[in-house]
Amino acid sequence: MATLYREGGCIEGGEAHDEEAPFILPTLLIHAFADDSITEEVVACGIAVFHQARVDEAKKLLIGVKQSFGIPADEPLHCRVMFSGDARRGTCWEALGAERIDKLVRDLCGMCQRL
Hints:
The protein is α+β, with helices and mostly antiparallel strands. It is built from 4 helices and 5 strands.
């Protein structure tokens, strides 16, 4: 059941309380990161959503994980490149290979759970 807040009252489940008050919706600041890759055989997508107050911490965590695997901090995470052997060729992801990329992603996801 959604609740819309407004000054002096709220609407819950369609029932208005204090109908004279104007609507003031709460502000929830989030930041989402997403990427996808579509092939004939696979659709891969990654998404991470963080409360705005945790975005800097998430970015630092990402940089740390990348660097621990020998990936430059400014190297983007692109499913299309990371998960395709042909697309990895000639990039910094090539040296990791599929198994270590999988480990990087699992490590990163595990660490992000606390955020």
